[in-house]
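Standup notes
- DV: blocked on the single-chain target, sequence here:
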Amino acid sequence: MIVNWLLKIDEALPRSLRVILRGVGQVVFCGNAVTGFIFLAAFYINDAMAGLAATLGAVSSTAAAIALKCSRSDIDAGLYGFNGTLAGACLWTFLGHTPQLWLYIVLAAMLSSMVFAFMTKPSALPFTFQIPPATAPFVLICWIFILAVPAVDHAFDIGPDVRAVDPDLPIPASSGSMPGAGSAWAGMRPALLIKGVSQVFFADSLAVGILILIGVALASPRGALLLAGGAFTGSLVATLLEADYHATEIGLYGFNAGLASVAVGQIFLRPDTRSALLAVLASVLAPLVQIGFSQIFLLANLPVLAAPFLFVLWVVLFIAGRWQRWRPSPLEKPVEPA
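- DV (later): unblocked, structure below
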């Protein structure tokens, strides 16, 4: 019943608005406009300007895909919107807030669509298999912009986000920085899984995390469980490894694990018991990979972003021997305009 309700609202929207909102929804693999609207509201609730940056990114990346004459079905499904959405929010988080930032957001979002189109071409990569690009365009383009923009435009300073000003946060700290075993376990409260979810949108916010889970649950209750469970598992593993306590508390070890759990447990593999077990494996591996990547990227003063999620996703899919995307719900299918 909820699925039919979502589809009716989705189809009733003008195509341009529907595609933009689907693109925002695809940030967590939900190709429907209602979820996209809830996600966009979460961005604005956390920070109105970050919401505007995410909106500009979604519009710019989608417009670029249309201009490049990319697959109409992929555009309609929102697959050219989510990397731009994330790019906009990311650059707002990690770069200084100057007027020219909006130009960089537009450029980064458009480039993310070009990279996505390149990675989805059958002959684009010299491999016998094709890896799903997922958020790789967003990660690659944002790394380039975070490094290049301050070097060529001295009006930019490091953004206010804790992950930018203190790159040591995502790295396991010595036991001396821990508040003690008792308080550490006390910190593993249910709020941890919510903040782990909210960090998908670069937010340390219970309200944002709850809205994301509501949006995902409307499209797929299984997806919401996988996202919440993966985020909690990632935070739990980080705590057991005595990773930086503050980073764990604000959910930095949860979002990659949550995304990996959903991607493996429902999107890129058939949603069954086997994929659920692989989702648990992915959510355990994600914080381990994030700890290692953090130490490497610290040398360049770069945030890991969604790189651990991508690495774990590709490794698990390679092990499973399945690279195609599984679309279990009609909400994942593009609706042709009337």
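- Follow-up: Confidence is low (pLDDT under 50) at residues 159-182, 324-338.
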